[in-house]
Amino acid sequence: MEESLNISELFKLVKKRFVLIVGIIILCVTGAGYASYNFLTPIYEASTQILITQQKDGQTQFNSQDLQLNLQLINTYNVIITSPAILSKVIEDLGLDTTPIDLQMNIRVSNEQNSQVVNISVQDPSLHQAVNIANSTVEVFQEEIKSLMNVDNVKVLSPATYVKNSLPVKPDPILNMGIATIVGLMIGVGITFLLEYLDTTIKSEKEVDELFALPILGLVGVISKKEVRKSKKLEKQRIRKRRLGGV
Questions:
Q1: Is the dihedral of CA 133, 138, 141, 143 positive or negative?
Q2: pLDDT: is 198 or 106 the higher one?
Q3: Which of 82, 150, 155, 213 could share a disulfide with 51, CB 3.0–4.6 Å?
Q4: Count of H helices and E strands in the chain?
């Protein structure tokens, strides 16, 4: 019973500060949307796919053991693709004003489970630049892997291409505003509880009973502003009648 009463009081408190909570949510959502569209730099993504196979001298057939060896190579290749040995040459070829470590943060290498297809995705504020970096990374990797591991087993399946009117992958205004809604709700509820905690006024006879354990002898009704104005008007009329009667 006490728990349900507390929940009831909680809903009453939220209802009491409903306008404040909604106002804070709207403020947060508006701020997140405005920042997403006007201040955050849009980031574009370009992707390319390569196929990694095991080189066979004069043979065209592969068995399950060969396939397993190919899959084991992929983890090694994923590291090599984003290594300074590759990215330094990419920076040099494209004349980029960055470092291999910074460029590495913008490149993501992945592959599906039990697949020899490797996806290389590059993110950059310029879509053209992202396409160039993705294709250059694959080209440099194809050349360097020959000397690094003495193999020639990298084939390009799908080079990165420039698509007009491509949408940026970041920022996501809808996601940002969704997060802002949750944050705004938390802030609004938090401020509501803080205001209630700081409010030490007594608002009901129940609070008097809980705080002082005193009996309630009587209640003073609330006089509305309309009744106050009406009372003042009647009082002025009585005073005017008295003055006229005295004259």
A1: negative
A2: 106
A3: 155
A4: 9, 4
Among residues of the chain, what percentage have pLDDT more than 70?
A: 83
Angstrom distance (rounded) from CA 157 to CA 163? 18
* Cα–Cα dist 154/144, whole Å: 11
- Give the pLDDT confidence score for residue 238 in this predicted structure: 80
Distance of alpha carbon 139 from alpha carbon 146, whole angstroms: 12
| ∠ CA 111-116-120, rounded to 5° | 40
- Per-residue pLDDT, 3: 45
CB 55 within 8 A of CB 101: no
The CA distance from 226 to 233, in Å, is: 11
Amino acid identity for residue 91 in this structure: I
Contact by Cβ (8 Å): 134, 46:
yes
Secondary structure class of 219 (helix, strand, coil): coil
Rounded CA separation 121/218 (Å):
76
| Beta bridge mates, 124 | 44
Quote the mean pLDDT of the chain.
Answer: 83
How far is residue 164 from each of residues 48, 86, 179, measured CA to CA in Å?
17, 29, 30
Measure CA of the first residue to CA of the last residue in the chain; give whole Å: 69
- Give the separation between CA 157 and CA 42, rounded to whole angstroms: 28
pTM score: 0.66
